Amino acid sequence: MEFTAQQIADFLQGEVIGDGQIKVNNLSKIDDGQPETLTFLANPKYNHYLYTTRASVVLVNRDFIPEEKVSVTLIKVDDAYSCIAQLLNMVNQARPEKKGIDSTAVIAANTSVPQSIYIGAFTFIGENVKLGENIKIYPQVYIGDNVTIGDNTTLYPGVKIYHDCVIGKDCMIHAGTVIGADGFGFAPNNGSYQKIAQIGNVIIEDHVEIGANTTIDRATMGSTIVHEGAKLDNLIQVAHNVEVGSNTVIAAQTGIAGSTKIGNNCMIGGQVGFAGHITIGDRVNIGAQSGIPNHVKSDVTLLGYPAVPAREFARSVVMIKKLPELNKTIRELQEEIENLKKKIDK
């Protein structure tokens, strides 16, 4: 499908600077723009690509002022990043919908399947599963007994959901994710370890997205909970009895030990490690590769290991850079002291 720059501007409530009748039929990255495509500029680091891109139309923020002459057509909008997100979602939704139930799927007799559902090849659905409307279950998904899945949720290939877990509405769970495996619970017993039965479940509330190959363990007792609107990246480990707050976002390779509670609207970078049995407040920002050994109050930004307030971490980094120079100075002072001692002894 083709759209003019003016049509796109009207849809996004933007302003065209340039040729409003120029047409685009696809999207592209600004550093790899192609003719007849639309791209966007939201990060100042990419400003220089605006003057060389081959894309036909570029979305920019309304307050953007070019530093050089621009040959492409611009569409000025309030927020270029959110506008490109709208367009990407439109493109994604335009793809043909999967429908029907593949003949190789195995579904327990006492599980009711709505007509609006899609179930892909070699999927297994256990006893007493409750499935909402418009669910999409891609091939090779496993859904255990007594699982509940809400309306409009998508499970991508190879997702595994163990028994008794609850998945909310409008969720998206990407390939290879495992929800409800046993928590890591063992008790020392005469020189070995005795397994502690994990009899709880996992609850994923509405509007949650979980990336590929993430694992969320079932609770020992009660529930491991990911609250409404949370977004988890790929390769995250969420241990037993953890709670992740509403609208919290967590980047890849983060590990959260058992019984830790993370608040609402937090932003957590990649490879962050959380100790167990601690509480993280609301609106906490944590930089990548930080280690969190203790409770954290709300409305702070932390970096480092062990994590400290961002300004303190920045001062520490400055001092670390000076360590070779300080070490040299200390050695010189030690030599002077030794020389003075020898003179005094004489």
UniProtKB/TrEMBL annotation:
Catalyzes the N-acylation of UDP-3-O-acylglucosamine using 3-hydroxyacyl-ACP as the acyl donor. Is involved in the biosynthesis of lipid A, a phosphorylated glycolipid that anchors the lipopolysaccharide to the outer membrane of the cell. The active site is at residue 240. Belongs to the transferase hexapeptide repeat family. LpxD subfamily. Its EC number is 2.3.1.191. It comes from Coprobacter tertius. It is an enzyme of class 2 (transferase). Residues 22-89 form the UDP-3-O-[3-hydroxymyristoyl] glucosamine N-acyltransferase non-repeat region domain. This is UDP-3-O-acylglucosamine N-acyltransferase. InterPro entries: Hexapep (IPR001451), LpxD (IPR007691), Trimer_LpxA-like_sf (IPR011004), UDP_GlcNAc_AcTrfase_non-rep (IPR020573).
